[in-house]
Amino acid sequence: MYRPRRSAAAEADKSDTERWLVSYADYMTLLFALFVVLYSMATMEKEQFSKLQDTISKVFIEATDQQEKGIQGQSVQPDIYPQSDFELYGSGLEQATGPTLLADNAKLELIDRTKLGSPLVAVQKEINRALRSLVESGLAKVTLQDDWLTLELNSGLLFSSGSAVSTSSASAVMTELTTILEQTNNFIRVRGYTDSVPIRTEQFPSNWELSVARAASIVRLLEQSGVAPERMAIEGYGQYAPFAENTTAQGRSQNRKVVIALSKYAYEPVAKPIAEPVQAQSATEEAAEQAVEQEQNKIRVIRLPHGGIRITTRPPEPGEEEPPIQQREQ
Q: Which residue windows are transmembrane per the record (predicted)?
């Protein structure tokens, strides 16, 4: 059977009518890729997503800065793990508006800033689970912000009014908390806060002493429960770092608290040198050493060759003379 051949014009018209399929296929491919990226971003951990977001932002910001300054030939790829300017105390602390009391500052300056402790997100979940009843009743609050995980505890839960003696409920809370802190190696800061109502007692002349004493009381409880004391330090803020207004009873209640703060950086124990065993000495050797030491520390009056005297503890040099004992006693 004879089939008439299509003309070239007819073939061209057909190809023109089917070109939209190419664009449609490209559009569907891009749309599929977009949904894949959105899905992967939705399933990422919050902390990982923040790190990715910061890295991407830093790339574009540095690229823009270098273009504006006319810098060429330099890579704008940032360091994935940059060195942190983190400070263990000072400007890096939340509510750090007053003087800070810290233990062993010399050791804190030797901290390896690249050594991280246990993940704070996991510790936050454990604390929320262990202190769930306190959190739901408003007596405790767990917050994760920047480099610190803070546990705020109302002073009424831990102490009597105007006192720094911990109650039985404070011991129970610290025992429960220690089971979590023992599994970590993060630095711990215990901070004491008070309201603005003055206190003038023989034990606490001001709110400064009260806030520090309460923080020290919690540190002792944690130490007795098994937390390494080298990880902990005490901070007292008194009434000068309020969380709420002191004009109302509710605000003053919110300002009376103790905050246990965990740093994201870890404490690294310092190896102590092994003391060499001391050999026992006989009584004769000890007496001889004491006699030599007394002779070396003996005060002498030395007569100089050209006149005059010198008072010293060392023996006479050549040419010098030590007067007889009888003359010195006159």
A: 21-42
